[in-house]
Amino acid sequence: MNPVSYAFAIAAAAIALLAIIEMLRRQRFRERHAFWWLLAAILSLVVSIFPSTLELAASVVGVEVPSNLAFFISIVILFFVTVQHSSELTTLEEKTRVLAEHIALVEQRLSVLTNDVDDSHRGRDS
Amino acid sequence: MPAFNEEEAVGAVVKEVLSSLPGIRCLVVNDGSTDRTANAALEAGATVLTLPFNLGVGGAMRLGFQYAVENDFACVVQIDADGQHNPSSVPELLAQLEHADIVIGARFAGTGDYDVTGPRKWAMKLLAAIISRIAKTRLTDVTSGFKAAGPRAVRLFATNYPAEYLGDTIESLVLASRGGCTVLQVPVAMRPRAGGVPSHNPMKSAVYLGRAAMALVIALWRTPISVRG
Fold first, then answer.
1. Which residues lie across from B149 on neighbouring strands?
2. Per mean pLDDT, which range of A4-18, B37-51, B67-81, B195-209 is the poorest?
3. Is B63 near chain A, with CB under 8 Å?
4. pTM (whole model) above 0.95
């Protein structure tokens, strides 16, 4: 592998890892969302520094072209991320639904109460 | 009465409900309408709950059931805001609640001349057959929006009414019968809807059948729930 592409791969993986850690630190991510991204960034950093680990792993699982193993693992990680997002989206939708229901109930009670108060004021005035 | 953008029809329907059924509370759930549905219903004398955005019939119904639980109403009757259902059939539905937890006002059970044709009809028949087996009674119309729920069903639905597509019909029935509620049907006559024409597009019917089948499968896969209290 030529030194430029070697350095490029390490730099890319390192930047990704730093970005994720920084976002975690600034609380832009919840930890459970960061998990898969952290895993991906660490794996890619290891593989970019020691490309032989990828070749070794590929030969262990019997994948003939090592880069295919890398693609496969990336797809698996992305798959888990999207599945997690779908599930959290469902939770959030359910929560907004409950909030909407509460708002509607409270709003109706409030309008009944304000009407009562207005009526009693009017009764006292006359 | 779930209502989404029904300002033209809802006022008259509420008035008819209140005049033909003395002693009831008419609750209109305004499902995020962008028109004057809420005002029209209020002026006609209904209690109105307004959802901040559209949740679909299922979402509106769960809110209605919650309102019933909070205000100690024993029974809930769901009726369309477009005037398709005749409020004078409500006592028949309520009478049958003595024998079951849910009573469906069925459209094809002999009374009235409501009819659909083609693939949509087959889809509805198939669904009815499957749900009849799940609920262990003979039902001919499971997609009716005219239903009465007794105390057990009201409690169940206040926490567990599905908001998904067709959740208000298919899934809610599956959920209730698996939760131990009994279902009955009463034939009702339908009236022409106040506005709009029902579609008879075969493509749409196929999509409808597909989504209905999926809703059914998902409903059967769900972990069953039971009624508290």
1. B76, B102
2. B195-209
3. yes
4. no
- A108: which chain B residues are within 8 Å (Cβ-Cβ)? 47-50, 67
Q: What is the DSSP string of A54-116?
A: HHHHHHHHT-SSHHHHHHHHHHHHHHHHHHHHHHHHHHHHHHHHHHHHHHHHHHHHHHHHHHH
Distance from CA of B48 to the nearest CA of A (A): 7
More confident residue, B168 or A55: A55
Measured in angstroms, the CA of A118 and the nearest CA of chain B are apart by 18
For chain A positions 19-58, those within 8 Å of chain B (CB to CB) are none
Q: How far apart are CA B38 and CA A42, in angstroms?
A: 55
Q: What is the pLDDT of residue B226?
A: 60
Summarize pLDDT for B176-189 with one digit per residue, the tens.
Answer: 888 888 888 888 88
Mark yes or no for CB contact B48/A108 under 8 Å: yes
At residue B173, what are phi and psi to the nearest 5 degrees? -70, -45
With contact defined as beta carbons under 8 Å apart, do B150 and B97 qualify? yes
Closest CA to B69 of B126, B7, B153: B153
Packing angle, helices B56-70 and B151-160, rounded to 10: 120
What is the b/e burial string over A1-40, where b = at least 16 CB atoms within 10 angstroms of the residue's CB?
Answer: eeeeeeeebeeebeebbeebeeebeeeebeeebbebbbeb
Q: Which secondary-structure segment (H or E) carries B105?
A: strand B102-106
> What is the ipTM, given to two decimal places?
0.76
Q: How many angstroms separate the CA of residue A90 from the nearest CA in chain B?
A: 11
Rounded distance between C-alpha atoms, residue A114 and residue B2, angstroms: 25
DSSP string, B183-204: EEEEE--B---SS------HHH
